[in-house]
């Protein structure tokens, strides 16, 4: 079948608006998956994803659908990740499509991510089919939300589809609309091969599996391909399509979506956004839009037991085979011993990697507070990038930090509270607009460092869960920043150092020593805790020595309770590092995040 019988589409939505549930319904309705084979949400394959209810890695599925005209169409669904950390992957998977379904929860409305995704879809000139989902909910107001989408996004919603992914309402209309309204791919079969990589993952047996969309030409098994950015060459061992299980094919043609295996060692060798061409007949120019993703957030990872360092190194190596955005290098500190400095796309990415290290590799880790990447000029005029606050030299000039453009969408009742929050976090007001009578968008320029702490949690709590946010990094800016050191028992605790604005240094310093006083268990001796800028102490507290009778109390009570307690302590004890002869628990390393 030629391109006229192919439709390539994605589903875009704000988190929790029902993307995965709808994808499952499309797979069921087209008979691609039998309901008895359907695990809860087929496209979200990873356990972690299912537990967290979010889509981390995108995926694809080819469905066969007989339309009203009696013809059989191949509908290629390209799934997109649902979180801001993975925005670049969303943009690449959209570039592999001609159209998309825009899912909006009819009981909620337009959210920050809805907007961000729509902008990406419009940039890629996609046909957008609006689906108002969850109409089964008693609180659903499809007419209000339809007006909202029209007013806010400017999309014609006269033919928006009312649906319930949960109760399988509107699924036929959606399938029909995909065929009727989304244009078929252009017929570029006669050209030199160009295929866009929109995802890849590491398979221990076949090497990296690369997902791609053929834009021009054709690709056959056995051909040698060349990746135009990495300049690497590979012979194709296997070609196939996902339906959603892999089905091998001999060739893929312009307009089609599929996967290849070619004994590629790590996903970093076949990065999302790269262009595949043929070695024997290379295309003149790579496809546009490629961007190297840069880690934005760094933290230290240290095994609690020093002898597990080699295990940690091996585990990170394995994770990196599958995660081109993860970077790490060894870090040694007198307090922490051997560990790694690791870079991530954002906080969610960081949490996912940490969780996998602990779960899949049974590693107990001490994790230091996340920090952004600063830049400064050293005294000899060199340009330094600082991803570890304790490495900021005492003498430097021109310390710069990354800034983001932050967009918040909120019911109007919470505008005041959110403006206050943004201002407290050094936000610079850019714009405010009324999306509808009830909802407002607020735009701020704000240091990334202020966003990676507890900003999202604060936004949610100050808006009773109703506000949403979205941000993108815009550049670097010089500010009056200082390194805040923490001393425990008169020794500098390097992993607790942070970089803060000078105006906030006293408040943060006072808050931090107070918090540490609560978090660090008492010992047999008195422990002074201080915050300092250079040699100047700006805040101090002390933990008084432990009295004997407090210990004695622990030994009363019933046996099972005591056992539980001991077990808990044993576990808790693992998550400690000794600094200045004092045992410092994991929570203390994160204390700086909650000062606000
Ligand atoms: P991400 O994968 O995180 O982007 O979320 P998602 O957009 O894929 O949302 P998902 O499909 O996981 O649905 C989120 C929640 O909404 C789940 O609890 C679903 O059961 C529920 N849900 C989805 N569609 C409907 C619907 O039509 N009606 C009702 N009542 N609930 C729905």
TrEMBL record:
Record's GO cellular component terms:
chloroplast
Q: Which reaction equations make up its catalytic activity?
A: GTP + H2O = GDP + phosphate + H(+)
Q: Which segments cross the bilayer? A: none
Residues the entry annotates as binding GTP: 13-20, 79-83, 133-136
Q: Its Gene Ontology biological processes?
A: positive regulation of translation; translation
Sorted alphabetically, which Pfam families does this protein's record hold?
EFG_C, GTP_EFTU, GTP_EFTU_D2, LepA_C
Q: What is its main location?
A: plastid
GO MF term set: GTP binding; GTPase activity; ribosome binding
Assigned keywords, A-Z: Chloroplast, GTP-binding, Hydrolase, Nucleotide-binding, Plastid, Protein biosynthesis
Q: Where in or outside the cell?
A: Plastid, Chloroplast
UniProt xrefs under HAMAP family: GUFP, LepA
**Sequence similarity:** Belongs to the TRAFAC class translation factor GTPase superfamily. Classic translation factor GTPase family. LepA subfamily.
Described by its record, this protein's role is as follows: Promotes chloroplast protein synthesis. May act as a fidelity factor of the translation reaction, by catalyzing a one-codon backward translocation of tRNAs on improperly translocated ribosomes.
Protein name in the entry: Translation factor GUF1 homolog, chloroplastic
